[in-house]
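Supplementary Text 2. Reproducibility record for the structural model of the 808-residue chain.

All settings were left at their defaults, and a single model was retained for analysis rather than an ensemble. We include the record here because the model underlies the residue-level annotations in Supplementary Table 4.
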Amino acid sequence: MKISYNWLKQFLQIDWEPIKTGELLTDLGLEVEGIETKESLKGSLKGIVVGEVLTCVKHPNADKLKVTTVDLGDGKPVQIVCGAPNVDVGQKVPVATIGTVLYDDKGEGFKIKKGKIRGEESHGMICAEDELGLGKGHEGILVLDKELKTGTPAAQVFKIETDYVFEIGLTPNRSDAMSHFGVARDLRAGLIQKDINKELISPSVSDFHVDERTLRFDVEVDNKDLVPRYCGIAITDITVKDSPEWIQNRLKSIGITPKNNIVDITNYVLHELGQPLHAFDAQKIKGNKIIVTTLKEGTKFTTLDDVERTLSADDVMICDADKTPLCIGGVFGGINSGVTENTTSIFLESAYFNPVSVRKTAKRHALNTDASFRFERGIDINMTEYALKRAALLIEEYAGGKLASDVSDFYPIKIEDFQVFLSYDNVYRLIGQEIPKDTIKNILASLEIKINSETEGGLGLTIPSYRTDVQREADIIEEILRVYGYNNIKFSHKLNTSISFDSNKETKVENIVANQLSALGFNETMANSLTKADYVKLTENINEEANVAMLNPLSNDLGVLRQSLLFSGLESISYNLNRKNNSLKFYEFGKTYHKYNNKYQEDKHLTLFVTGNRTKGSWNVNSAVSDFFYLKGIITSILSRLGIDNAKNSPVKNDIFSEGISLGLGKIKLVEFGVVKRVILKEFGIKQEVLFADFNWDNILKFSNKKNIKVAELLKFPAVKRDLALLIDSKTEFKELYNLAFQSERKLLKEVDLFDVYEGDKLPKGKKSYAVSFVLQDEKKTLEDKQIDKIMQKLQQSFEKNLDAVLR
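Retained model, structure tokens:
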């Protein structure tokens, strides 16, 4: 938010350095993020003074030049060569002295230097209108009023302003400071603490008077909860033209482009008092009636920016007698009802709209206006009529308007000021220091907080309506502290702390795994729990109906809570790959969120992401690409570290993997891992292979925390391992081969493991190669070769018959 220092001085007559004022505003909680110098005219006519021409003779060496002697008011007349045809003795003229910088219409400057023109010395320059930037005239020099005192700075003559603009980072709770008057009110409270007691000057509306009631508008408000207060007045005989220069300068200083006197005055009052206003062309309001209501869902309405918008049934609309929409209440005007150069009468609106309603409407239509910015934070409802009168008087003065009606004021339920009791003990306790009671009362008085009653233990207070953020005792204590000054609170240089001991077993297990992964070169990531709703379309394992949607999302990219940690991790992978960081190892502890049968469920997960090389390349180390078995080794080591050594392989049922397996205990799944499908990676612009593992952390904790130890006799007879390299159809999944193997040999087959997959141009089209290991073991005797060969032959035949597999 931009605040003009010169504008502030209309309310507080202070003459502090801008930097010093900015520091005080920051101490008060209105953080000044920067101070910018603004000039109403480039260069502010610095170095240009009023001079009087004493002599004027023809240049001896040039027909069109004259040699003049000019008094600059310092008692030392100077000689200036001038080429203007209208220069003459006795004139008062603007003179650019030596060292002055003049600027052209492009903002480029040139410096006035001492020199010789055709052999005659010249010590300055008598200026024309365009050379000063005051107009376009160049027929001759600018001749000034003879009554002006010689030596007067030209900036005073032409009322050139140099202003300082504060860029304030306003927090959402400080709706009371969304105007120059509000900032001045806060600044005054801070000055009082420095023993500088300045009067807060507010604009007078005592001259408000209706002479003729010639134009009346009836006001009807359908919903007092959405529009607690609505004021309006009719003004006739206006002339739409440029606004006065002083209003234009005020608006320009804070970055607003002037348009015409009516629009500029409503903008001026908005930034002066914090009350948004809107002017309607009275001739475009049918039936001389204003109806504040809501319209049917889907109604079309074209706003001032010439965009047709589809209205919601919850949008507050300002309509005429035919319920034709004229304006989106509190947000944006309509293109067909605004003030134009042909407007001669207006209906001026000043209202208080429900902050929540305005916020939802502005968000719904992606509109962020100066009006909605203030309404949605909560303006002062008691400022509504006052601001209307202030603007009406300005329109009467600068647009020739006549007040043609009394003020219509719909205000059925008056909002009372809030009552709070303040305990001195709580003040001392929260601030951490005892502040004198008189100081507390002075601060409250400077903030316009009234003291209704006083006891030994505290104060009964009335909070003004414009302080919508002060509703509790703690809020008042915060107000006292910020005005008293955080820097005035004493603190000890000794830091006292206690050693915390976390006995939470879940945290211990998490730290064990995190330390192990970090030691293996992994980096921990923490992604946003909010994600895109469209990600559910990338896999059938996630149900769109299970999405937990945000009622008021910040954007489409943050519309739902994530059902999987995969996609946020791939976003991180993509971000790093796009910045040439190609070898990555990430892990994340996080939650997924689901909605099942109108009930919400949260699950804890640990995910791993691996892509690129295992280690950073070096002159004495060959780079090895991370593969499926590298990831499997890491997963096995994690489970082993947690005492889970008996997890069994099973085919993965998750369609995010092109190849993958699941590890579990019985029917309880512990982790799924594998190679992410290319079609998913393509959505994130990832072209290299990415390995992904998803631990069900809740299940991991169940088994890692078990203290029961089962003892079993070691098997006396050795296990036998055999491998098969099979050429199979590319659509065949490992789980089919896995299930078929155990169906063929239920007694002696203990494990089936996939240890290599090959797909390439050396294989027939539509084929891939699986290298599969089989572990056989008999608990009662040693297996013989004949028995082993018979089992392997049976497995091979089963694969050939059911999967069209061929032994390579």
